[in-house]
Records
---
Amino acid sequence: MTLAELVRWTGYLNGAIDVCLLIQLLRYGLVRRYCWLFGYFLADVLEILLPIRLPTRSVWYGYIYFGGQAAKAALGVALAINLWRLALLGYPALARFGRQIVIYMLLAAISVAAVGLLLEPATPRGQNPLVHSLQAIEGAVDSMVLAFLVAAVLFLLWFPVKVRRNLAVCIGGFVFYWFQRWAILLLLNRNPAHYTTLGEVSLVLQLGCLVLWMLTIRPEGEIVTTVTGHRWNPAETEHLLGQLDAINARLDRMVH
């Protein structure tokens, strides 16, 4: 089996796990709560199934691939906002503030990528100009989402926020998933000749994350909760909860 065939079959396996996750979310009645995660899995499945009979070097295969990547980048932004909102249901002003930060970061990332492309002297040798531009913009968006996710996780690891276990699993898995997506795209932009090898590495890492989600997202995960930070220190927990309430109240007053 060639490396290209291995990549294709690993992609099919990823698609099969995606389908299992879609069925699982439907079966457990979690689609409404995790609608953007459901949409992301669905986009992944469509990106795999639509070009299944197309040659990998064909124009239509490229359209479907880059269209799918763009759709997943947009869904990734929406999913990051959704997970942040769910984690801070008790702090709506903080949730709104996080959403506004994501929008500003997204606009800034796209602007920086566009300016960089305009100032770039030439497209790297061996790379299609359109493909290079699309990957540069996708990389900027992925970097923005990753930066927000890391900041959100650090925030949740510091402040003692009570979240449902399924949500904690989704956040942790999505941070890893997005980090590998960002890292592989960065390597791909610098080493386009290693497209097939990097594609296989990405698919294997994605597969591990999808299997983790499939094994850990359960109906009881909507009942069982966990505290994200400082749960080992009750005195510090109370102090940080007071700070969190104060931050939320201040942001709420700023809006009104």
---
Amino acid sequence: MSQYADLLYDVDAHVATITLSRPDRLNAISVPMLESISQALRDSDVNDDVRVIVITGAGRGFCAGLDLKDLVAGTGIGSNGNLAIQRFDLNASPPVVLHNTDKPVICALNGPAAGYGMDLALGCDIRIASTEAKLAAVFTKRGILPESGGAWLLPRLIGWAKASEIAFRGQTLSAEEALDVGLVNHVVEHDKLTEFTAQIAAEIAASAPLAVQATKRMMRLAMDETFEASVHHVFLQLLPLFQTKDFREGIQSFLEKRQPEFTGQ
């Protein structure tokens, strides 16, 4: 029996694939799924065999957001009493865990991503969209706000003005519209999504994993620090990388004009 509820988890060729798996509900987020996403991300982050994480959805949708049917039925998120006074461990929530994950994360958008699903996609480092994908910022049309990282992520990804229009109007963007504004990296034919995502993941996995993780960590920290502070932090991060076997392999393979074989050491 899987240790994860409502999702599938697989590791192959240094790539961990997390598949949201409630296809009959367009992968709407359940309480067990929330916990499983965080756990799968944590497990991937501490697994030395994992160099890249891919998040995707089963069936025809990526994620329809929080399961409103469960919420109305009293079995969903916030159903145990007054939501306003409940104590949530936000540090263990998927948006925070995803943000703090050092392994690079690719979102393979196989279909519509709405609400929480859109925020989850935006929290990934790279987004590859099927031609059938959509990003639906429907929060204001439901009387709420982007509660799962979107309010922080959206203006940083595409700028204040574009983010404001999308969020305030509650717009739904097609894959091509999302590409035009810079919310996705690539749009590919639906039947090519898995293959194309695997190619990008393999290219990242072929790089020195400690260097990739350090690069992501420094880029993340740099978003909230001065240029001078970033330069100092990057230098301090560089010193231990000089001592790694992978650094020596990178130099040696360059001199020998061959592809490097990194071990993560």
---
Amino acid sequence: MKFLHTADWHLGRIFYGVHLTEDQAFVLDQMLAVIKDTKPDAVIVSGDIYDRSVPPPEAVNLLDDVVSEIVLGLKIPMIIIAGNHDGPERLGFASRLLEGQRLHIFGSVESSIKPVAIEDKHGPVYIYAIPYAEPALVREKLEDDTAHDPASALKVLINHIADKNPQGKRSILMAHAFVFGGEESESERPLSIGGTSTVESSIFDGFDYVALGHLHRPQRAGKDTIIYPGSLMKYSFSESPHTKSVTLVEMDAEGHCSIERIPLKAPRDARVIKGYLKDILKGPTEGENPEDYIMVELLDTSAILDVMGQLREVYPNVLHVERPYFEITGRVAALDHRKMDDAELFASFFSQVTGEELTEAQKSTFTSVVDEIRHKEREG
């Protein structure tokens, strides 16, 4: 059996005020070309289809175009799960009707997790699709009080599957999770600000391939067959060294997998340029695209008039400028708020306003309130 594994499309993403839908359509066209060329038996998408729970219309239209081409045009089954950015009920609308068209969407966790069976000449391969689920929902659906954070909730769901997974049959697990040891990026929203969100790779024992989503760098997670394909595009400047790709997998009769990463290239790269203004204004070197999305790290130590205006004369898509000299020479080093989670941001704000540190009880209250807000947001 041959299948294409992808994840973290984040359709509708806004990058420093720039709407990326046109760029995303360009990259998805490349993915469609890969699918037409390799002719997989299935396409699986491991969550974060949209960038937010209520996506803009152009993102919905783009998803409709891509899914229609794969399922109706190429007659290839698709299996899709919701990630922590997706609104599960919206994504899963009409999923029972769509099953008849080879489109299998798993938006919300259900009490019974039934596999999608894809047949090849060696028999069925069972694909178990676990959408990202709030711990409270897992406790309710599976009546298991041990699901108190994202990690334990995923363990409950996997244990539920393991009890029913036919022994000796090939199987794939789809999940949206953070496996311990994985490399993060700035553009990933934390799965939780309270409790444990990381899971050990050992919880996936028994599956021939684990198709993960959430982390944006393509990587293995502990074992050769536990795979993050990475995000569709670069969604933060911390991802500038990444090579984005989709993962093509061939599984033999025994469940052994050969894995190939097929690169994807956006029309505009996300790059970081570091140097002095006079050198940067000389323009791109040979092979560099001046239309790329650029973050500039200026080494100049003197005041400069209209830095952004000067830079955009050469690089029209300069989106952010940093001046590290001024951050490290002040009385207090500037905090990089992009690298702080919600709890850290609130603790910093509280300290600046009140002059006091948050107590453990206040931290717990904040965590509970934010988790409840996120739960309501995802459920729509």
---
Amino acid sequence: MALLGPSGSGKTTLLRLVAGLEEPTQGRILFGTEDATRMAVRERRVGFVFQHYALFRHLSVAENIAYGLRVRPRRDRPSDAEINRRVSELLELVRLSGLGQRRPSQLSGGQRQRVALARALAVDPRVLLLDEPFGALDAQVRRDLRRWLREVHDRTGHTTLFVTHDQQEALELADRVAVLHRGRLEQVGTPDEILDRPASAFVAGFIGEAVRLPATVVGRTLELGRLRLPLAEPVPPGPAALFVRPYDLVPADGPENDSFPVEVAAVRRSGSARRVEVTLGADDLPMIEMEVPHTIALRKGDVLRVRFTTLRVFTVG
């Protein structure tokens, strides 16, 4: 599960509550059916991976991974042979076989983060907590580690809570996403549910590069500046907000009833498509970004006929 939300929404606080580093003022923390609310940190068996690795610089990679096992009370501590076997397994799992005797300073950022994950997995955690684990890495390394982390999760099956500011990361990695705002859960669902069926205006505006446009609902019509758009589903009448993502607006094949003209304000190439900023012809409405095929030649000032594929409307006030 990915925890997604703006800074200050409570993502890291929630991780610290699960880990036992903070105490809740109310409510309970359950591991399955077991109440862990007052359980000591050591008893929870939680693996925690931080953004900046938090590795011991004076220890080798293998010693870092083994640390959580070696500091256990004697009665719970595995034998040296068992610890060495576990470390070897984890080095292979995180693709660092042969690097066990190196120091963290001799590794790349991506390798260090894999060591941090192996150390968290060494204690066989009931819950794995990842707090912005790729935040300090460059874009290409982040993409590679995302794919690798998903593979590791599928192989180990550990319940994982993953904090990130990166929406693409959350939607690509997670089976479920929890969107937080000001300490509250706005919505919990699959990536498809979060993207396609936002439960609140906040989720609709926060996810997917959405632009918020002021509108008014009159009967089964959405009034957007001078535009009048038919609503497929009933919405309570009155002031409303329309949330538009780049793929919600597409070129129209012709002068359909639901199409309308827009003026091109800026054009730039984005992979196999063009990103185009358009104005709706009303001074009080912000520009909207949309994607068009690169085969459509457009310049600033051109008029393009478009239509909405989806209308995400929420009443306000």
